[in-house]
Amino acid sequence: MTTSEDKNLPKHVAIIMDGNNRFAKKKQLQKGDGHREGKNVLDPIVEYCRKVGVQALTVFAFSSENWNRPQFEVDLLMKLLEETIHEQIPRMEKFEISLRFIGDRSRLSSELRELMLHAEQRTANFSNMTLTIAISYGGMWDIADTARKIAQQVKDEQIDVNQIDTELFARQISLGDLPPVDLLIRTAGDYRLSNFLLWQAAYAELYFTETLWPEFTVKELEYAFNIFSGRERRFGKTTEQIQQAYIENL
């Protein structure tokens, strides 16, 4: 199998799946049909990422701010999320992909929380790739929640306050056991992160496209990967330092 190292592909890809409602308006569909169409786009994207050796794919399904949408749309999204999880469990087992969820579960129904936990437990031992679905998630919530957990550890004398640094924080935040996000993709033409993986994507390459999510294809994902592979990632170093390190590793 091709790996992310073989072709300089991202190890961790994150996608803001935007544009479902605009797609429905464009196609003159009924309310909610854009979300239904968007749900079907994920499967080929997941399969392609697994095929080329991406280690982790994280998708933004429902944000903390999405609770402010009309109740009809919120209810529909919750129903589609349940359908997606039911559909994904056998697919995850077929391709040996671990399925996870991140976000504030306290606002979700008990039925959805139980289904999420069931899916995580059934796929926990798979190691071909990790698919994470962000539900009721916000990057600022994630950072604050991690800070609260660490503060409690200090209070309980499990760690000393002087031990707190970026490495400790990175290990305890959501997805801390996965590689940092290398490539963050946003569809539908907006040029912002919208409170998604603010810590984990600190050094991510960004790819913005006008393509609406229901029209996003594997072909465009390949193009985004090609763009990524052509970018120089310096992480604060100079080009000369990067080139020297490359030569030394040959």
From TrEMBL:
Cofactor: binding details: Binds 2 magnesium ions per subunit.
GO CC annotation: cytosol
GO process annotations (BP): cell wall organization; peptidoglycan biosynthetic process; polyprenol biosynthetic process; regulation of cell shape
Origin superkingdom: Bacteria
Active site: D18, N66
Residues reported to bind substrate: 19-23, 31, 35, 63-65, 67, 69, 186, 192-194
EC numbers on record: 2.5.1.31
Key words of the record: Cell shape, Cell wall biogenesis/degradation, Magnesium, Metal-binding, Peptidoglycan synthesis, Transferase
Cofactor: Mg(2+)
Keyword Nucleus included in the entry's annotation: no
Residues annotated to bind Mg(2+): D18, E205
Reactions mediated catalytically: 8 isopentenyl diphosphate + (2E,6E)-farnesyl diphosphate = di-trans,octa-cis-undecaprenyl diphosphate + 8 diphosphate
InterPro entries: UPP_synth-like, UPP_synth-like_CS, UPP_synth-like_sf
Quaternary organization: Homodimer.
Role played: Catalyzes the sequential condensation of isopentenyl diphosphate (IPP) with (2E,6E)-farnesyl diphosphate (E,E-FPP) to yield (2Z,6Z,10Z,14Z,18Z,22Z,26Z,30Z,34E,38E)-undecaprenyl diphosphate (di-trans,octa-cis-UPP). UPP is the precursor of glycosyl carrier lipid in the biosynthesis of bacterial cell wall polysaccharide components such as peptidoglycan and lipopolysaccharide.
PANTHER family according to UniProt: DEHYDRODOLICHYL DIPHOSPHATE SYNTHASE 2, DEHYDRODOLICHYL DIPHOSPHATE SYNTHASE FAMILY MEMBER
Family annotation (NCBIfam families): uppS (TIGR00055)
HAMAP family for this protein: ISPT
Family named by the database record: Belongs to the UPP synthase family.
Protein name as annotated: Ditrans,polycis-undecaprenyl-diphosphate synthase ((2E,6E)-farnesyl-diphosphate specific)
Gene: uppS
